[in-house]
Write a structure and sequence with these properties.
Largest sheet: none
Order of helices and strands: HHHH
Structural class: mainly alpha
């Protein structure tokens, strides 16, 4: 009997937590993280460390600090999970079919061209 009361309490707590979230912030954070993930994984493999330093680290740091200031860490973690799921779906249906990025394919146009 006690076990059912605990399950009911946990279920109620989860529903109360999910209903009190600011879903617009979750959507905005997930969209921003999704853009950053696509930008990171579409970078040429040998230059990903630059993308990690200049794109991922500042974005994650700023997101974590801002979520802490506004006391929205739950929204941040949910947005990270949602963005990762959306990225995996995008990668499965579209990203794998895109050609690999390579610096040799870039043609610089100058005044002579």
């Amino acid at each position: 009997m006690e076990q059912y009361r605990l399950i009911d309490y946990v279920t109620y707590a989860m529903i109360a937590t999910l209903s009190s979230l600011n879903w617009l912030n979750v959507a905005l954070m997930a969209g921003g993280i999704l853009v950053v993930l696509i930008g990171f994984f579409r970078t040429e493999r040998r230059y990903r460390w630059i993308s990690l330093l200049l794109l991922i680290a500042p974005t994650c740091g700023a997101l974590f600090v801002l979520a802490g200031w506004r006391n929205q860490r739950t929204e941040m973690w949910l947005a990270l999970l949602l963005a990762w799921v959306l990225y995996r779906v995008w990668d499965h249906f579209l990203g794998r079919h895109l050609p690999e990025q390579d610096s040799d394919d870039i043609k610089v146009w100058g005044q002579d061209d």
